[in-house]
Amino acid sequence: MPDPMYRQIADDLRRKIESGELAGGRQLPTELELREQYDASRNTVRDAIKLLVTRGMVETRPGQGTFVVAKLDPLIITLDWETGFSGGEGSAYYKSEVKADRRKAEVSVPRIEIQPSSAAPELGLETSAQVVSRHQQRFVDGTPWSLQTTFYSMSLVQRGGVRLFQAEDIPTGTVQYLEETLGIKQVGWRDKIMVRTPDATEAAFFQVPDDGRVAVMEIRRTAFDASRKPLRLTVTTYPADRNQFVVNVGEVPDEEVLGAPGSTASNASSESAAQGEKE
Question: What pTM was computed for the model?
Answer without folding.
Answer: 0.73
